[in-house]
């Protein structure tokens, strides 16, 4: 008697996603899970991570609880990346605060810099140090990589860093077959804004994208693997195109007037 044995000769791809407990990170995790990625979900809220793990399939995905504003947690996740092989790293974790620069606690803004830049650089370094052809690193930035935002000065500054950092890495690794990109969504309908001291409704509706739209753009960029800097959404690309016809001073004045951080 001969028994038929089904063997999957294609190993599942593996991805690590930071900020995976909600919003854009969660939606990206859902999309990658549908494409048969085995995921490591990183965030600081263990309860939320376990809930996401249950939703996506506990047997196929793991969680890693870490607060990436803390050096010891950055080092721990970096070690994990050094000790394990991944096909994809998505640096999605990010934070920011709305308000006038000197009205916000300095420590809060330094934590934004630690998460949005230091953690992102450290994890990128760990991943790329052992990346091979076919691997990909995508850093989630923001439309603010292209524009200042009075009322969120430090946050906007960190996102400019992410965009330029990612472009430079794209060039350094493109001939090795390793894709690096900065993915820049506009304002998205997530709890990021309420956590930052405002609400999505504070933005003009024409600039707000749904989480699903952002994830669609991410998956398209990952599949195409062509541009080092990707602007999500036609309306965001149209707005930036319009800015080209204005002086920098005029653009900053516009952004200041629509900024949730400067509204009374």
Automatic annotation (TrEMBL):
GO terms for cellular component: membrane. Keywords: Oxidoreductase. InterPro entries: NAD(P)-bd_dom_sf, SDR_fam. It comes from the Bacteria. One of its GO terms (molecular function) is oxidoreductase activity. Transmembrane segments: none annotated. It holds the Pfam family adh_short. PANTHER family: DEHYDROGENASE/REDUCTASE SDR FAMILY MEMBER 7B, DEHYDROGENASE_REDUCTASE SDR FAMILY MEMBER 7B. Belongs to the short-chain dehydrogenases/reductases (SDR) family. This is Short-chain dehydrogenase. It comes from Olivibacter domesticus (Pseudosphingobacterium domesticum).
